Amino acid sequence: MSPDALPPDPFAGDPHDPALSLEGPEGGEQDGLSEAERDEVVADLADLAVYQALLEARGVRGIVVDCGDCGEQHFHEWSLLRASLQQLLEEGQMRPHEPAFDPDPTSYVTWEYCRGYADAVLSDS
Questions:
Q1: What residues pair up with 76 in beta bridges, in sequence order?
Q2: 69-88 confidence digits (pLDDT tens)
Q3: Where are the alpha helices (DSSP H) in 56-110?
């Protein structure tokens, strides 16, 4: 899924965008990713492809993340997470997106589960 397939920012170009106050006192562009951060995102994208290949056929729809900001779980389908990581790589930030509608928590696993599952499957090969 390309970043263009994501819903548009409803406040794009709006000088009264409430998110503008979150940019800090200078209100300028955010810095891009450091080389180490870019390397981490590229590695995450590669890992995500492996995890999806191994788990999607088993009924896993994506990854669940515990949000430190709101304290809730966020459910990310494979394609949405890939598009978000790709956008982070290209633009240095992710656009806000709509949460999954009525997700079935049993269809999502944590990143750590994916890593452990992949390690176990690939070590048997």
A1: 63
A2: 888 889 999 998 999 899 99
A3: 78-91
